[in-house]
Amino acid sequence: MASPGRTELENAIVMLVTEFHDAAKTNTATMQSNEFKSLVSKQLSTLVKESDDQKIVAELMTKMKVKDQENITFGEFWVLVQLLATQVYSEKTEDCKCKLL
Questions:
Q1: Which of 28, 29, 56, 83 has its CA 20 to 30 A from that of 93?
Q2: 73: which strand partners?
Q3: Which tens digits make up the pLDDT trace of 42-68?
Q4: Is residue 42 part of a domain?
Q5: pLDDT tens digit string along 23-37?
């Protein structure tokens, strides 16, 4: 949902929120674990290698501190975003001397 008045970064944030709500079909405040697994395999398959592997998805949920069959809040989803963003940052800055706070 690009908006002419928004920057690319702002549009990226809006997209994250929109994708969360689109994936959370049964309840827009939380996502069921099966909805989360579908989101990961459909939308994050490049960043999450073997995203269709249930063990990999279970590991992600553990890192997010979510138990299997628990609903996922946006805050917990944001933990995944942070983990993936940190991974991308690390890959892009292998030779960089800057620091991630």
A1: 56
A2: 30
A3: 999 888 988 778 888 889 999 999 987
A4: yes
A5: 999 888 999 988 999
The residues, any chain, with a CB within 8 Å of residue 80's CB and separated by 6 or more, are 60, 63, 64
DSSP code string of 4-40: TTS-HHHHHHHHHHHHHHHH--S-TTEE-HHHHHHHH
d(CA 44, CA 42): 6
d(CA 17, CA 20): 5
Q: Answer yes or no: are the C-beta atoms of 61 and 81 closer than 8 Å.
A: no
CATH code assigned at 64? 1.10.238.10
Assess if residue 88 is contained within a domain.
Answer: yes
Radius of gyration of the chain (CA): 15
